[in-house]
C-alpha cells in the first residue's frame, strides 16, 4: 500500500508540476507582453495585468499540492522531534489528518464560492469569474488527495532521521 500510494502521488505530482510550469511560463510571457506594450508599442492592451493575476492565483494554488507531495511544506518538527518515537509517529499522523481535514473543509466551502463567481464578471474579459474562482476547490481537491496519499505513504515516519543524517 505504501509503494502504491507513493507511486500514485508521484504521478499526480508530475502532472501538477507540469501544469504549474506551463502556467508560470504563460505568466512570464504575459507580464513581458504587458511591459513591452507599455514602454515600446503603446498598444494599451487592457488584459495582461488581469490575466497575470488569474495565472498567478492558479499557479500558486496548484503548487500547494506539489509541496505536500514532497513534504516541503512548513512543519513544526522542533517539538515533535523531542517526543518518543511512538508519540512522534502518532502526532505526525494526527497533524496529517488535521491538514487533510483543512483541505477538505476548503474544498467543501470552495465549491459554492466558485459557483458564486458564475454571476460575477471579470472586469476586462467580461467572462464569468467561475473558472478563476475554481482554483480554490480544484487546488483543495488535489491537495486533499495528495495529503491522503502521502499519509498512506509515510504513516508518520517522515520526521525520522535518515542514515545520512545519523552519520553526520
How would you describe this structure to a colleague?
With 168 residues, the protein is mainly α. The chain has one domain (2-160). The chain contains 7 helices and no strands. The protein has helices at residues 2-41, 48-69, 77-80, 85-116, 130-133, 135-154, 163-167. α1 (2-41) packs antiparallel against α2 (48-69) and α1 (2-41) runs antiparallel to α6 (135-154).
The average pLDDT value, as a whole number, equals 88
SS class: mainly alpha
H and E string: HHHHHHH
Largest sheet, in brief, is: none
Q: Please give the alpha-carbon distance between the first and last residues.
A: 32 Å
Shape descriptor reads elongated
Query: What percent of residues are in strands?
Result: under 5%
* Count of the separate structural domains: 1
Rg to the nearest angstrom?
Answer: 20 Å
Helix content: over 70%
Spans where pLDDT lies below 50 across 5 or more residues: none
Helical run tally? 7
- By DSSP, the count of extended strands is 0
Brief write-up:
The chain is an all-alpha fold. Helices cover 76% and strands 0% of the residues.
What is the strand and helix layout of this fold?
Elements: H1 2-41, H2 48-69, H3 77-80, H4 85-116, H5 130-133, H6 135-154, H7 163-167
Helix pairs in contact: 1-2, 1-6, 2-6, 4-6
